[in-house]
Amino acid sequence: MLDLRAIRSHPDEFRQGLERKHADPTLIDQLLRVDEAWRNALAEVERLKSVRNKASEAIAKKKRNGEDASADIAQMREVSDRIKMLDDEVRRLDDEVKELLLTIPNIPHASVPDGKDEQDNVPVRYWGDKPAFPFEPRPHWEIAERLDIADFERAAKITGSRFVVYKGLGAKLERALANFMLDFQTSRNGYTEMFPAFIANETSLIGTGNLPKFGDEMFKLEGLPYYLIPTAEVPLTNYHRDEILDASQLPVKYAGYSACFRSEAGSAGKDTRGLIRLHQFQKVELVKLVLPETSYDELERLVEDAASVLEALNLPYRVIEICTGDLGAKETKKYDLEVWMPAQGVYREISSCSNFEDYQARRANLRFRRDETSKPEFVHTLNGSGLAIGRTVAAILENGQQEDGSVRIPDALVPYLGVDVIRPAE
RNA sequence: GGAGUGAUGGCCGAGUAGGUCGAAGGCGCUCGCCUGCUAAGCGAGUAUACGCCCAAAAGGCGUAUCGACGGUUCGAAUCCGUCUCACUCCGCCA
């Protein structure tokens, strides 16, 4: 959430920020209106409580001296009733302020290119040579079915559409990629490996910004205040919730492997085939908690950390900078990594790296202290996929495919998979 | 799932016939003194959030906070209810 005091002192900056994001700038005015009402009610109730506290003290004194205090008590009864009413009012207004604050999106960073939607995103660099095929490249789902390494039909039988069962070398490829990515990010890029729970509570989801607004993108456990995590970002970012870290601990860098569950509400008809858009996929997620003044440098480094996996796997990709209109609600700045998918002839998102500044840190109360005497400040949080495994499988299958239906495995992965080519059964 | 115990400040730990308790005491930490150095000793200080005053900082005033929420009361760390978490025992499991 945004800083309420900052909004009070220069609301125009926030209105403009929301406009850049094509969000509703009048949210700021709504907020300020309720905030003022809240502060007025608060001042009044605190004044009455002050009266009450003094009177209570006087009553205590009288009683100790054996004097009669019944008149004072009767008088205070009225004050107390009024306090009770005002307290309800204050609570109601305070809830309203908090709810609005939780709903208002983050403001884009000054460096983010203006734009309306994804059409206006800006490619910033390209890496790798797209493979040239002397034949018509097949889509990955066809390759996978032919190699008998992924089974969508039976997954639909077991669960439903948008699920997959990996089989044989497909299952091992999934496992090999997870191991490879975790090893890579821990040993090469200095992340601490984490293995979180796949279920998180509502407080955690509010902390990362998935609730209250985006509950319908997740699977909720029936009758419980628990959700299946849509990404390991949720448990990893909440790991230090309500803590005050020492500045010397920063940056905190976590790499967590998890399954990710997405309801994909509203995406009917999109990417209905293959591994691109499933209700469950696995991912290695990178999360950083950093000093505020370093967060944009850390974002650039995060992009490199994610991109270096693609380079190690020799998968062609590009980096695009997301424009203001296409930014998610929580982000101040975001880069997507898009991997080349030869069969469709398009780049597909395989990683998304974002800076949230203190938007999540405020929600999750993630703070640090510069030294023993200084006041706690909010950290900046960042995260990026490093990478989405299902889409990496798809990219490896499509980019490594050969005319005979076999698939060449990237060299870096061979020690993990045990073979350098996946061939169709005879 | 059943039975029980507990939750107080950075940590430990007092505080139940409700009233000068934001909370004794100790440890830790900070500053000063003392000391050849260290240790010990002595003195002072040491929570957070929010609102108001102030151009701002400094500072001042006020309110709230003893797991959370709600209730009783003029007044709650202390009484009542609900919940959460932790621990112990039993059962059940990987």
From TrEMBL:
Protein's pathway = Aminoacyl-tRNA biosynthesis; selenocysteinyl-tRNA(Sec) biosynthesis; L-seryl-tRNA(Sec) from L-serine and tRNA(Sec): step 1/1
Q: Which InterPro entries match?
A: aa-tRNA-synt_IIb, aa-tRNA-synth_II, aa-tRNA-synth_II/BPL/LPL, Ser-tRNA-ligase_type_1, Ser-tRNA-synth_1_N, SerRS_1_N_sf, SerRS_core, tRNA-bd_arm
Report the EC code(s) recorded for this entry.
6.1.1.11
- Chain residues that bind L-serine: 231-233, 262, 285, 383, 385
Instruction: Kindly state one GO CC term assigned in the UniProt record.
Output: cytoplasm
Gene behind the chain:
serS
Enzyme class, top EC level, equals: ligase
> CDD domains from the entry?
SerRS_core (cd00770)
Q: Which amino acid positions bind ATP, per UniProt?
A: 262-264, 349-352
> Is Phosphoprotein there in the keyword field?
no
What is stated as this protein's family in its record? Belongs to the class-II aminoacyl-tRNA synthetase family. Type-1 seryl-tRNA synthetase subfamily.
- Keyword set includes Nucleotide-binding: yes
Indicate the principal place this protein occupies in or around the cell: cytoplasm
Q: What does this protein do?
A: Catalyzes the attachment of serine to tRNA(Ser). Is also able to aminoacylate tRNA(Sec) with serine, to form the misacylated tRNA L-seryl-tRNA(Sec), which will be further converted into selenocysteinyl-tRNA(Sec).
Q: Which reaction does it catalyse?
A: tRNA(Ser) + L-serine + ATP = L-seryl-tRNA(Ser) + AMP + diphosphate + H(+); tRNA(Sec) + L-serine + ATP = L-seryl-tRNA(Sec) + AMP + diphosphate + H(+)
Instruction: Set out the biological process GO terms recorded for this chain's protein.
Output: selenocysteine biosynthetic process; seryl-tRNA aminoacylation
Protein name (database record): Serine--tRNA ligase
HAMAP family reported in the protein's UniProt record: Ser_tRNA_synth_type1 (MF_00176)
| Source organism per UniProt | Alicyclobacillus macrosporangiidus
Which compartments does it reside in? Answer: Cytoplasm
| Domain commentary | Consists of two distinct domains, a catalytic core and a N-terminal extension that is involved in tRNA binding.
Provide this UniProt record's keywords sorted from A to Z: Aminoacyl-tRNA synthetase, ATP-binding, Coiled coil, Cytoplasm, Ligase, Nucleotide-binding, Protein biosynthesis
Q: Which Pfam families match?
A: Seryl_tRNA_N, tRNA-synt_2b
Segments forming domain Aminoacyl-transfer RNA synthetases class-II family profile = 139-410
Q: What Gene Ontology terms describe what this protein does at the molecular function level?
A: ATP binding; catalytic activity, acting on a protein; serine-tRNA ligase activity; transferase activity
The cross-references to SUPFAM superfamilies, in alphabetical order and at most eight, read: Class II aaRS and biotin synthetases, tRNA-binding arm
Q: What is the lineage of its organism?
A: Bacteria, Bacillati, Bacillota, Bacilli, Bacillales
| Alphabetized NCBIfam families for the sequence | serS (TIGR00414)
The record's note on quaternary structure and interaction partners says: Homodimer. The tRNA molecule binds across the dimer.
